[in-house]
Amino acid sequence: MTSQDLRTGAARGLPATRSLRIAEIDGLRGIALTLVVLFHLFGQGRVSGGVDVFLFVTGVVLTLSLAGDVRRGTQGRVLERWTRGFGRLAPPAAIVLLAIVAMAVTVLPPWTRAQTLVEAASAALYLENWQLIRSQLAYGAAGPLTSPVQHFWSLSIQGQFLLAAPLLVAIAYGARRVLRRPGGVLWTLAVVATVASFGYAAAQNHTHPQAAYFDTLARAWELGAGVLVAGAILRGIRVSGPWASLAAGAGIVAVLGSGFVIDGAAAYPGPAALLPVAGAALIVLACAPGPVAGGAAASPAPSIVRRLLRSRPLGALNRHSYALYLWHWPVLILFLALSGQTVADALGAAVVLVASGVLAVATQRLVERPVGAWLRGGRPLRRAPAVLTATLLVPALVVGMTASDASRPSVAAGSCQGAAALDPERPECADAVAAELAAGHAPIPALDELTADDDNRPECWTGLGESELRICPLGPDDATLRILAVGDSHSNTLLGVYERIAHERGWRIEAAGRAGCHWTHAERRQNEPADVAACARWNDALDAHVAAHDYDAILVTHSSRARYTPPAGISEDDHAVEGLVSAWATRTDPATPVIAIRDNPVFPLERMSCLQHAERVAAGECALPRAEALRPDGLAEAVSRDPHAHLIDLTHLMCTADACPLVVGGAILVRDGSHLTATFARTLTPYLDRELARLLADVESERNP
């Protein structure tokens, strides 16, 4: 469609003086955002499809609005459009983000603070979805340690579209001499981009479902579908006559029901998202005014759906839905943090809904409405600096904050830190560290640095949904021994240890870790169904690599929390052991030592809150009974069935005879209940080094006589 096409819209029966507005879209948008809120609070982790509808509606509304700009010849006023758009969105978002920052500093666990502040800054800059991908944070139900900023990912995608689309239209129409039909070019681009994004979303949803959920490129087809439906409406295409009521009814059923029939967290934004998006498209096409002679626009005949979407309750819901969406998630996280619950029960969810509703009404009346009126009452460009200030307020505040807590000195027991405190040959270490803790010294690392205390690195790591085998070398090239270290995330907590041993011994240790997957032929159960196949492909690649290389030894370990899907007639434990033995049998030389390292203690996530109470840490109250913390991992049984396999068990340096404490030798044992902190892991270096040297002494002497 060209500029001339748009300007002669009256000849086609479309309004020529203002943007085409479909009143029912307001109600649809209110339903979409409210569905997200209700499913977050009461859906037990299910995804409603409301975000998909929200993005589709964004595409429709912005396209119709931009078409009005082109018709009036004002498409070049990009800064004015940005000011009006973000002037409405940014101030309420800034208020909520400031509240989240205050929560992070005062209420939430200190170890979540750094990540929360980074996400708050990303959300203020409309980059939260990419931050979540970079951090490999999966979309899921709320929990006490879930990011309170997580829900800003969809607003970030909307913001990116609101930034890009007006600029693209302005550039196209500003280049009329080169693009003689800029409208036609834009519509062609919209079709191609939408189709390409849909294909990309389908592929990514199969291979990288968790990243695809947040990916702008994978979500673009939902916005693009809105653009194309708006284009159809601009050409006078709609569902009319007796079909309109049927289409609108089918559409509302699809929108409301998609969350109940599809697991959106795993399936969206892949082809399954066509259900809520197509439902929304049917509603819009059935409610769009049709062309009549004389330039007026005829509304479709009344229907139950149209009455519902135009009703006063839905109108009020739409007015407050944006603020309700902004508030509900951080209020839910705050409730979980204060109540100690891991999942909100029905009563708790109702309390969160009421509190969020009150905050939403206050925000709409005191912030959204006044700011909107202020922008409409004057020249937007003159008021752009205020909008920019509101947009950048949160990242500026975050950059200026100091997240570290220097209120207490840290434990400084030197070589007695960590594992040495439980070394029976060094009894003085236990006394030295206990004295420091009793004196009020804080364990290391600092609580606000806890989750970042990790020695993993991207070049040694394959993420969820991925199957590429990434191997990184540690140690010198001219090594005396060449060792492979493989496993899941629990293996990669030892990378700093492996690196020190490799350099001190002159060995080369090649490390490969994979999220939620380790070297086994057993089918490891996954949160995402698509990840089962990805894990199997990673194992196939690892088998091929091991078979093609002559290693002097192979180090293996994995999480004791791993679960498996055994075939009929075999217990899960037996299946786990058989999977290990079968995988180890693929090594080139059966005599090559396989050295299994028993997994570290694991703790319930809620037990981590004990670390915030120095007196409980000093009194040893943060411990878990040994039998609960040390779970069977199948390694000992697998080792017993392979004559050239060995087991290294260092858990006596993490647990006493009866209990496993969260703080050992003044060092916090795990950063998230499951993974060793880099600080503690490094204290295991001399002990693991000693065991490896003992087991590989004969191999090394053969290689270097």
Explain what the structure shows.
Helices cover 55% and strands 6% of the residues. The chain has 705 residues and is an alpha/beta fold. Helix 4 runs parallel beside helix 17. The protein is elongated and about 85 Å long. The termini are far apart.
Oligomer: single chain
What would the average pLDDT be, to the nearest integer?
A: 86
Helix content: 55-70%
Secondary structure category: alpha/beta
Query: In percent terms, what proportion of residues is strand?
Result: 5-15%
Low-confidence stretches: 1-19, 292-296, 402-406
What's the total count of β strands? 13
Helix run count? 28
What's the N-to-C terminus distance?
A: 80 Å
Major β-sheet annotation: 7 strands, mixed
Structural topology:
Blueprint: H1 3-7, H2 24-42, H3 50-72, H4 78-106, H5 113-124, H6 128-134, H7 152-174, H8 182-207, H9 209-214, H10 216-234, H11 242-261, H12 264-267, H13 274-287, E1 290-291, E2 297-298, H14 304-310, H15 312-339, H16 346-376, H17 384-400, H18 427-438, E3 461-462, E4 472-474, E5 482-487, H19 489-492, H20 495-505, E6 508-514, H21 529-548, E7 553-557, H22 572-584, E8 594-597, H23 614-618, E9 624-625, H24 626-629, H25 635-640, E10 645-648, E11 659-660, E12 663-664, E13 667-668, H26 678-683, H27 685-695, H28 697-703
Parallel strand pairs: 3-6, 5-6, 5-7, 7-8, 8-10
Antiparallel strand pairs: 1-2, 4-6, 9-11, 12-13
